[in-house]
Amino acid sequence: MSSLPLAQNLIEIERGLTTSSTAIFVPFTTQELFQTGKEALYYGLNALSNNLIMVDRKLLKNPNGLILGTPGSGKSFSAKREIANAFLVTDDDIIISDPEAEYSPLVERLGGQVIRVSPTSTQYINPMDINMNYSEEDNPIALKADFILSLCELVVGGKEGLQPIEKTVIDRCVHQVYQSYFNDPRPDNMPVLEDLYDELMKQDEKEAHHVATALEIYVKGSLNLFNHRTNVDIDNRLVCYDIKELGKQLKKIGMLIVQDQVWGRVTANREEGKSTRYYMDEMHLLLKEEQTAAYSVEIWKRFRKWGGIPTGITQNVKDLLASREVENIFENSDFIYMLNQAVGDRAILAKQLNISQHQLSYVTHSGEGEGLLFYGNVILPFVDRFPTDLELYRIMTTKPGEVAEAREAG
Ligand SMILES: Nc1ncnc2c1ncn2[C@@H]1O[C@H](COP(=O)(O)OP(=O)(O)OP(=O)(O)O)[C@@H](O)[C@H]1O
Ligand SMILES: [Mg+2]
Description:
The protein is built from 16 helices and eleven strands.
């Protein structure tokens, strides 16, 4: 009688229940993430209720995101899905750093620009590119000089990096090189590395010549691919930097230059009130090198204010905890798309993100496209089973057999 909807309790026993035990009696309340805004994107189905998960990262306190998972768990795939979705639904610009050369089918299909950065390529990006909005203060050269110092630091190398006198002369030369450009800022006056090299050679200090000599291989020698004016459409809405072909020597430099190009774009876009999404696949490569790691941390700190939405994609959580500095990236990401995790990483995540054993079960031996979504303080298990018979699937897959098939089909 008590259980009938008569609103009459004939049982005299009463007891208090904690929230979690009460929840057992109310099986139909699940946490949902469904935003109806115009820029909400699809991230899968809620594994508990099968409802759509639609969220807009721009509504988070900070839109910085991470996609984490073991090889083959579907990280790059989910990034591509978000890219395609954002491309169609929003007006945002999208930039991809692609060390595995796997984004080009998607980017080309959407009419984007793939830039192959390699010693044999004829597509060039100029590390000296600058625009008037490059920095918040009215002196864009100061920030650019900072980047060129990092670049020279990579080039000169050595344990101690650049010496104080070397830094001074580089800074002086950078200012001189840009001064002549700003006097007459036409695209064909944009400086290249060679101008910096010539300027360094003109200085009296022997330190200047030391730096110039280190730069020589990048200006006149066999690694001169960064000594050209930009000749590709870096203003396309969708740009993918394919850096697979860069050898070990050039990879660090190439990645740093790409990050600087992204910064240039983000600053120009802010002026127009446009957001820029930046995807860094295989982010552990960036975190391994001091200079690119420092730049990535900067991106995580500064981008939000400039309307940038960075997403880091990596296999190992351990890479993100390598140093106090890099840990900032992890702590300042309000959006985490967590796919299947390795044992060691699960333990780390449980501790860092305070997630329960039960929640961890969603990232333990989970299938492709299944895992946990962290959106602000909401945690949801999701499932995304993308239909494999779609054209979109064919241009997003990385399974060797399927890639070969798609290539044959043309
Ligand atoms: N949501 C999904 N629905 C259907 N299939 C998927 C889904 N996610 C991933 N896959 C399949 O899994 C394959 C591997 O995914 P993906 O290339 O994203 O791996 P990854 O996590 O980026 O691995 P790696 O670390 O090696 O780059 C895809 O090519 C696709 O076939
Ligand atoms: Mg991948």
